[in-house]
Design goal:
The chain has 445 residues and is α/β, with parallel strands linked by helices. The chain has helices at residues 17-25, 48-52, 58-61, 65-68, 135-154, 158-164, 174-190, 219-233, 278-287, 327-345, 382-396, 400-416, and strands at residues 8-13, 31-37, 41-43, 62-64, 75-86, 91-96, 101-105, 108-111, 116-117, 166-170, 204-209, 235-239, 241-247, 250-255, 260-264, 267-270, 274-275, 297-298, 304-305, 308-313, 318-319, 362-367, 370-375, 378-380. It binds flavin-adenine dinucleotide.
Length: 445
């Protein structure tokens, strides 16, 4: 088939960190870019838990893609879900929001659709234990958190009340640790004087993980410090404990010794494990690409798929020597893929340099004034870690207005504990029809 038309058509699937950095690298290139995303906004995933816990609003962590890209004249945004790739005809099949289909021709394809929550073969848990990957998830978690305190206030049975005041989190990675800290802070500092029948400070927060360390990827020193900090906040940490059952009343865990234990907790949140979305399988079938156990696509050192130099996989969806699923990896890989295409269309000699990830470190927030940061051999925790965390997030938040708004919200919550973003939708499952008022009986004369 014809190699390409002019201007070269670049389709980028996914407007996450990887997709946006690929767009940015192509900004002055003579190419026609189509950015396809199933959402109209870019979500700053590392702060989803702050939206869920009422610190930040949706608008502070999600920016319209069109607004971010309004000055990019060579970019067209398309709100659509990519469902398949035809690698022979070089087409991406997408479904628009009204259900109709479209085929987008490409000369170069960049796939950066990220990963989704994995329930390790127990997808039935999802109904009772929402994950934390999208803005919808953050809203669902916010509703569950604040509704649980309302229910605890309303019920009279002490056992029921205790179950509503028990919050279980499965997965002690950064998201689980951050959420656990937030729930204790909400209980102790945000809601402390707002209820009459319950003491929110009595809320139990249980954090479970199958491995024997919290924040295992941060190494043993920071892991121990993070666990101590969590415990000082009142979080009950249960390591070597795997969730085997989750239902609307709580969860059962199996410990390393083999014994099982049941916990009544009306709020269970899932912060463990990721897997590739279905598009990865479609891409693998279309190209013969190999997938790892989580379904991520194994890529060549230049991020292309073997035998398909026109298709690149970037961000969380790619597996290159086991690089971690971090925002920095996504940004750098997206930028690398975009740069390669630009150099090619500009007629420069194609670089043979493989993609190299420059590790800028990682950070996890635990509570007000406490965070852990790891960069190479540097391990920082406590207030200094928290200041570094703050700096990193202010720098990387997309858009001036989100940045300024987020700083104001942080100042309020850090100074007073109060959270402004606590509104939540009532949720269809709990909507109750009020019976129409009985017709007034005719007055007796
Ligand atoms: C709760 C949470 C906390 C995190 N904290 C940190 C942190 O502190 N530090 C850090 O470095 N990293 C953190 N990460 C990881 C980081 O956010 C990811 O590594 C990064 O977002 C990956 O970028 P990406 O572009 O590959 O994918 P994503 O950001 O997931 O973007 C994928 C995009 O593709 C779109 N999409 C998906 N499927 C389709 C489809 N079929 N068709 C069209 N569009 C599609 C999605 O709508 C989305 O916009 C966190 C992640 C989460 C979920």
């Amino acid at each position: 088939m014809e190699d390409h038309v002019i201007p070269r058509r670049v389709v980028i699937i996914g407007g996450g960190f990887a997709g946006l950095f690929a767009v940015r690298a192509l900004r002055r290139a003579p190419v026609a870019v189509t950015l396809v995303d199933r959402c109209a906004h870019h979500t700053f995933q590392p702060l989803l838990y702050q939206c869920a816990s009422g610190i930040l609003s949706s608008g502070q962590i999600a920016q319209p893609l069109r607004a971010i890209l309004r000055r990019r004249e060579n970019v067209r945004c398309l709100l659509a879900t990519a469902t398949d790739v035809d690698a022979t005809e070089r087409l991406v099949h997408v479904v628009l929001s009204d259900g109709s289909g479209l085929a987008l021709p490409y000369d170069d394809l960049i796939v950066g659709v990220g990963v989704r929550q994995s329930y390790f073969g127990h997808d039935e848990f999802a109904e009772h234990a929402p994950g934390m990957k999208t803005l919808d998830d953050a809203h669902a978690v916010r509703r569950r958190l604040f509704r649980a305190f309302e229910m605890a206030e309303a019920v009279e049975d002490p056992k029921e009340r205790a179950a509503w005041l028990s919050f279980a989190l499965v997965g002690a990675g950064p998201t689980g640790v951050e959420l656990a800290g937030q729930i204790r802070e909400i209980a102790r500092h945000t809601l402390d004087r707002e209820f009459s029948s319950i003491d929110p400070g009595q809320a139990r927060v249980l954090l479970f993980d199958g491995v024997d360390a919290v924040l295992a990827s941060f190494g043993p020193v920071l892991s121990r410090r993070a666990q101590r900090t969590l415990e000082s906040l009142g979080v009950e940490v249960h390591l070597g404990a795997i969730a085997t059952e989750v239902d609307e009343r709580g969860l059962t865990v199996r410990r390393q010794g083999g014994e099982s234990q049941r916990y009544d907790a009306r709020t269970v949140l899932w912060t463990a494990g990721v897997e590739a979305p279905p598009l990865a399988g479609a891409l693998a079938r279309a190209t013969g690409a190999k997938q790892d156990r989580a379904g991520r696509i194994l890529v060549e050192p230049d991020l292309t798929i073997a035998g398909h130099p026109e298709i690149r996989v970037v961000g969380d969806l790619m597996n290159l020597n086991g690089l971690p699923g971090l925002a920095e990896v996504a940004m750098q890989s997206g930028a690398y893929a975009g740069r390669h295409i630009r150099h090619r269309v500009e007629g420069r000699k194609p670089s043979t340099r493989p993609f190299r990830y420059l590790d800028l470190g990682s950070a996890a927030y635990i509570s007000r004034g406490r965070a852990v940061v790891k960069r190479g051999r540097l391990h920082v925790s406590g207030v200094v870690g928290w200041l570094i965390w703050l700096f990193i997030h202010i720098v990387f938040l997309t858009g001036f207005r989100s940045r300024a708004g987020a700083m104001m919200s942080w100042a309020v919550v850090f100074a007073s504990g109060s959270r402004r973003e606590r509104a939540f939708a009532s949720g269809e499952a709990h909507a109750v029809d009020v019976p129409e008022a009985a017709a007034p009986s005719p007055r007796s004369a």
